[in-house]
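Notebook entry, structure prediction.
Reason for the run: the old model in the group folder had no record of what sequence produced it. Starting over properly, with the input documented here first.
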Amino acid sequence: MSTLMSGDTRDRTMQQENAIDRTLWTPGDVFCQDARCEYALIVLNRPIHWDHDRLLRMWRQARVTVTVDGGTHRWTKYLEKQGIDLLSNEHRQYVPDLITGDMDSCSPEMIGRLRAAGSTVVETPDQSHTDYTKALQQVAQYAKSAGNINLAEIYVLAETSGRFDHIIGNINTLYKSDKLVGDVKVIQVASNSLTWMLKPGLHEIRVPRVLTRQQSWCGLLPFGCPVSRISTTGLKWNLHDATMQFGGLVSTSNTYSSSKVTVNTDTPVIWTMGIEPFQETPNQVPVFTCY
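New structure, fully documented this time:
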């Protein structure tokens, strides 16, 4: 692990000066019984390795639900394993609001059946962008056209296993997200982690206590270009006016000294955090509501 030791008064002053621009992240909210904000849930064409009760609740609480190309088949097969017939009247809540993508990995028959069941289908054949990138554009347009949807967050099911170029492509989409959905937060959800981009400025991350108790891992990764100045509090190994870049310092295999983490950065940087305890304790949902 490469990282720096704890910060000092200069870090605290730097954060106090920017407190008005603080961005609050509460990554445990989506796993709670009651969502605290309006969010969209997107299913990409990636394996789904989630405890079904929790994922089904996430889907039901979402304001907008989306399957992307082959993700439509993934979602249907996932439901079948839970004994859920997507097209039966009693399970219509699991029909996606929106289906999008270039449709090269989803059968016309399936698309037709879901359209008849109520899904809005938008084909996006442009090959200069990934289906994930195009899906964010379409979600923003869908919410705007609906008129009464005010999305605060978008959660994207994106397992981190498999092809490395796909993993990096997904990270690249995070860097584009502000151009696609504005200030809406985009968080990638894998069965073992959450990953998102921190824009320049001060961020506060409320870490669920189950993760601090079990010393779950977290990291800060400077994709694309060096981060010339970054400081943190609440980590076991804090950064203090650090410069981060590949080939130099990166912060991996870090963990928590507090349930409140702050990150102050002058450059976009990727935050990633392990959530394995969420899978290991499926019957202890209330524990995730406490920060």
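Summary: The chain has two domains: 37-191, 193-290.
The old model has been moved to the deprecated folder.
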